Q: What sequence folds into this?
């Protein structure tokens, strides 16, 4: 057995490590090839290749204004659709949208709802705190809002996307069915 690689930073994917593929990943790959007829190494390389295409110029994103961020997201969404197909791209964006509404956002949602005297008061609190200046994706934003409102209200809601900056509108607009 080989010596474990000592990492000085965390990685999201094995392929980000200079030691990729390490002995552990190679053993896992061999087992998956035998049991499932698929390669973990090839899958990780595929993910890397797709991410590199989709995240093109991501380093410029943080310093951009909202219009440039929207344009970057539009390009990234189109590259994702081209790489994996529209249905898979939507599933990926929706998954990201759910993750985007993390614990902190959900706690704020619950707090604001508890402090509000009405739905209108709740919406005013949200508009003054959470959503200003955010660029949201085609599928991701809808799921982010869905999770946010479900956390606040403690029940299922439906969210429809009316328009999005990414699709060329001046703002993102949603209907929240509570």
A:
């Amino acid at each position: 057995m080989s010596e474990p690689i000592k990492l000085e930073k965390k990685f999201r994917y094995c392929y980000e490590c200079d030691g990729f593929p390490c002995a552990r990943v190679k053993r896992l790959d061999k087992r998956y090839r035998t049991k499932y007829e698929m390669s973990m190494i090839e899958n990780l390389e595929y993910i890397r290749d797709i991410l590199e295409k989709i995240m093109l110029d991501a380093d410029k994103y943080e310093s951009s204004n909202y219009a440039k961020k929207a344009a970057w997201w539009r390009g990234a969404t189109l590259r994702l659709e081209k790489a994996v197909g529209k249905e898979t791209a939507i599933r990926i964006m929706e998954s990201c949208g759910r993750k985007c509404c993390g614990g902190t956002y959900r706690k704020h949602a619950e707090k604001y709802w508890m402090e509000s005297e009405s739905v209108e008061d709740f919406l005013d609190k949200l508009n003054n705190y959470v959503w200003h200046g955010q660029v949201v994706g085609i599928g991701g934003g809808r799921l982010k809002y869905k999770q946010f409102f479900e956390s606040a209200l403690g029940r299922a809601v439906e969210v429809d996307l009316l328009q999005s900056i990414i699709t060329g509108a001046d703002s993102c607009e949603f209907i929240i069915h509570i």
